[in-house]
Amino acid sequence: PPRSTLFPYTTLFRSKENVTPNFELIKYAEKLCLYLPEFDPLLVELEQPTMNRVDLMMLSIFEEVFLQINPQMVGFCVPFPGNLYGALKCGALLKKKYPSVLTVMGGGYVNTELRQLSDERLFRFIDFLTFDDGELPLERLVHAFIKSNYSIERLKESVLLDEGTAGTLIRTMFGFQNRIKTVQLDSVQNIKMADRGIPNYSGLPLSLYLDLTEFANPMLRLWSNGRWNKLTLAHGCYWAKCAFCDTSLDYIARYETVSASILVDRMEAMMVQTGQSGFHFVDEAAPPAVLKRVALEIINRGLQITWWGNIRFEKSFTSDLCLLLAKSGCIAVSGGIEVASDRLLQLMNKGVTLFGAANACEAFTSAGIMVHAYLMYGFPSQTEQETIDSLEVVRQFFALGLIQSAFWHRFAMTVHSPVGQNPAQFGIKRVANQLNFFSNNEASFKDSVSTDHAQFGEGLRIATYNFMHGVGFDKRKFSWFGAKMPVTTYPPTLVESFLVTKRDEDIPGNSRLIWLGDGVSELLRISKTGKEEVVITCYSGAETKEVVTDQKQARFAISMIEKANLTNKLFSFGEAEVLFTTLTDASSEKMIRSMVWKVLRKNGLVIV
């Protein structure tokens, strides 16, 4: 709404209790919807005879915008529990006052929680649910609605009778005569990622987006403050094997990407449309190979972009690749260190080790990229000792400057994850196997290893908060918990021992050399001994680095930098070795040991 309309409501938020206990600044009635095996608690709130002032304000703004547009169809995206109540309240308003308008709801909450819905009462508020990627289900629904002459009842009847184009609906659910009907929920048809076009922000008052609140955690500030252009580099997860993840669902299981040129074309179009050059890549895990190609494309086009996103801490993220990503505008990454235990990482099939994670984090932070770690406790079979040892690993990661931000989550078993689908494999047993009438996602379980995980949550949070602010590193015997805890079994130098100095031996000959420095110059002079020597100066930002060498190696350095320029064709490590032997009359083995090579490597020459 316009700024002027916000002022009368500012006094409403002075006391949450005086407005509604469901109010939160960046979500609404989330606690009510977090775990809803039955619809009744939410239904009671939705059908309250009197509405609180937040409801009244929300519905007033919603109806005002609705009347301005006067649509025949309204879609609600519900990615999180904190969006469900508001969507259903707005849907109820449409049902009461504008019953001919077709309403549709989709998004992450629908996809994960409502796939086994059996309570038809939800459809008092919404006409249709769509599942998984919504572009094609919505397109089919629009065509069917038009074919039905904009009649909701005729549309539903035609779907049931499979008449005409209505029979082509996919991944939809609706209520009809007090029963729930589903249409091709398992369909794998989708619009290809290359054909989806560019996100459109037209009509949104982008200048009115606010920094809603301020967090001590730097990564949470990135998420919540300001506004970023959202873009997906790839659909799904290229790993898609983690035992705790919803790997059976389409949003994880189906991996698809497009060329870097298409992705950067979309970025440029969004920059023009929004006036914003900051991007949040919202991938489940951005693939290293795709990030490399996108970074090269951004640098090649000379774009000034800031971006961040989610990754996996794997060995592909070398120090060279991270320098390339930083050059293209990367400022932060987040990824899962999870349980910080190699035994449990292997059990959950994470595909990374503490060794690999430590080196990946070092590569990012050395390139000036902030690192946020997702952490987990309470995974099946995790012992009290392993939780304390995990905290010790996190302490060392912070102390060494490998991460700057972190957050602990307690493990939750979902019915769509490998753990939820094969609990016995992980030594646990589901408490109840029957489906709930409403929400079916998180499931209760009994672990064969008896550990009171509830005692850790607050202590882990407090400890990590202190580590994040550079405090508490000297506490080897953790006192962050209310109860007495065991002493860690890990040595204080464990993580430091993982860090290895990257060497230039065993570089594949087809690896690409890229010069990221700002420039290089040479100066011929006579040394004190009367010999000719060349001073090569490398420029990188405000810094300069000089190396004194002979004319042959100077020619090699200048020639190699010209060939490794991004605007030229691919220049490989093998070609650099040939160039070195040609210009210096020395063996290729001497190249990586030469002083000129070492200086170039420290000042802008990367191998990816």
List the main descriptive attributes of the protein structure presented here.
608 residues, six-stranded parallel sheet, five-stranded mixed sheet, disordered N terminus, 16% strand, alpha/beta
Describe this structure in words.
The protein is an alpha/beta fold and 608 residues long. The protein is 36% helix and 16% strand. The strands form 6 sheets. It has a 6-stranded parallel sheet with strand order 6-9-10-11-12-13. Helix 12 (260-274) crosses helix 13 (288-300), helix 17 packs parallel to helix 19 (457-468) and helix 21 runs antiparallel to helix 22. The model is unreliable at 1-13 (pLDDT under 50).
Helix content: 25-40%
Strand % is 15-25%
Radius of gyration computed on alpha carbons = 29 Å
For the record, give the distance between the C-alpha atoms at the N and C termini, rounded to a whole number.
48 Å
Strand adjacency order, main sheet: 6-9-10-11-12-13
Outline of the structure:
The protein is α/β, with parallel strands linked by helices. Helices cover 36% and strands 16% of the residues.
Helix-strand layout with pairing:
Layout: H1 3-6, H2 16-19, H3 30-33, H4 40-46, H5 53-69, E1 73-77, H6 81-97, E2 102-106, H7 108-113, E3 128-130, H8 135-147, H9 152-161, E4 172-176, E5 179-183, H10 218-224, E6 229-231, E7 234-235, H11 250-253, E8 256-257, H12 260-274, E9 278-281, H13 288-300, E10 306-310, H14 319-328, E11 330-338, H15 342-347, H16 354-366, E12 370-377, H17 384-399, E13 405-410, H18 418-421, E14 428-430, E15 445-447, H19 457-468, H20 494-498, E16 513-515, E17 519-526, E18 532-540, E19 543-549, H21 551-563, H22 573-584, H23 595-602, E20 605-607
Helix pairs in contact: 5-6, 12-13, 13-14, 14-16, 17-19, 21-22
